[in-house]
Amino acid sequence: MTGAGLVQGKVALVTGAAQGIGRASALAFAREGARVMVSDTNPAGESVAKEIAQAGGDAAFLRCDVTREGEIETLVLGTVERFGRLDCAHNNAGGPGIGGAVHQITSEDWSHVIALNLTSVFHCLKYEIPIMLKQGGGAIVNTASGAGLIAVPGLAHYAAAKHGLLGLTKTAALENARTGVRINAICPGSVDTPALRVHIAKDPRIEKAILASQPGGRLGTPDEIAQAVVWLCSDRASFVHGESFVVDGGAVMR
Fold first, then answer.
1. First to last CA, the chain
2. Fewest beta carbons within 10 Å, which of 67, 102, 192, 205?
3. DSSP the chain
4. Containing domain of residue 102, as a range?
5. Helix/strand/coil (H, E, C) string of 165-180?
6. What's the pLDDT band for 120 if we cut at 50, 70, 90?
7. Residue 52 and residue 24 in contact, taking contact as beta carbons nearer than 8 Å
8. Angular region, 183: left φ>0, alpha ψ -120 to 50, beta rest
9. Which residue would you say has higher pLDDT here, 201 or 28?
10. Which residues are known to be catalytic?
11. Dist CA 102 CA 109 (whole Å)
12. In a domain, 217, yes or no
C-alpha cells in the first residue's frame, strides 16, 4: 500500500468494519494511504486490521458496541491515542433488526434499531467533531440507506432511523460548514454482503424480488460503496456538505 492516494497520510476510523461495507471501507481507506482504526463487536475485525498490515498498511482494531456511548468515546479517544489524530470517520455500524408491520414491531426491537442506527451515530458525531475542530478540519460519512429516502414496508423502525440519520447529517453539516469539518451520508442500495446473503438464504424468492428492483439487474458490491465513502472523505469532495449520496444502481429513482 504505497504511493499517493486520495487520503494519503490521514487517519480513518470505521465502525462496523468486520465484514461487508465496513470491511471494504477499511481496506479502501488503507489502499488510498490512510492509517485505519478498525472497529466492530465482531472479533473478525481484528483480521481486517491484520490484512491491512500484511499489505503494508498501518491499522489497529478496537472492539466497540456502538449502542453504548462510553464505548464510542473510548474508541474515538483510542484512535487519537494510537494514531495521533482523526481525519476521517465512517460511522457505518447498523442493522435492520427484526421485521414486521408497524403494529407487530416490539418496543424492545424498535428501541434497539433506533439505538443501533441513529443514536449511535449521534454519539459518534458527539466525540468525533470536537477532535476534528481542534485539528482544524476533517470529514465524516454516516451510512444511511435507500431506506432513508423511501418507505420500506416491514422495516418501519429501520426506515425511521435512516430517515432520522439524514436529518442529523444535514444539521451537523450545516452547523460545521465554516469549521473545516465536512459531514455527509452515503445511501447504499442492495449490496452483496454476508448479512444480505443470510437474509436471502431464508427464501429464494427474496433474491428474485431484490434483483427485480434493480434497474441494472445486479446487486452492488461492498467495494463500490467503499469507493464513494473514501471519495467523500478526500479533498476532492471539499465542496460537498450535508449530501445524501445515493449509491444504489438507480433503485430509488424508479
1. 39
2. 205
3. --S--TTTT-EEEESS-SSHHHHHHHHHHHHTT-EEEEEESSTTHHHHHHHHHHTT--EEEEE--TTSHHHHHHHHHHHHHHHS---EEEE------S-B-GGGS-HHHHHHHHIIIIIHHHHHHHHHHHHHHHHT-EEEEEE--GGGTS--TTBHHHHHHHHHHHHHHHHHHHHTTTTTEEEEEEEE-SB--HHHHHHHHT-HHHHHHHHHT-TTSS-B-HHHHHHHHHHHHSGGGTT--S-EEEESTTGGG-
4. 11-193+222-246
5. HHHHHHHHHHHCCCCC
6. very high
7. no
8. beta
9. 28
10. 158
11. 11
12. no
Task: Judge whether 205 lies within some domain.
Answer: no
CA distance 199 to 190: 12
- Count structural domains, the chain: 1
Distance CA 16, CA 219 (A): 20
38-62 per-position pLDDT tens digit: 999 999 999 999 999 999 999 999 9
CA distances, 182 to each of 24, 32, 187, 192, 243 (Å): 22, 19, 17, 28, 10
Question: Does residue 201 lie in a domain region?
Answer: no
Instruction: State the pairing for strand pair 11-14/88-91.
Output: parallel
Q: What CATH number does the domain containing 108 carry?
A: 3.40.50.720
Residue 253 lies inside a defined structural domain of this protein: no
Could you tell me the sign of the dihedral formed by the alpha carbons of 13, 16, 17, 18, in that order?
positive
CA 121 – CA 19 distance, rounded (Å): 19
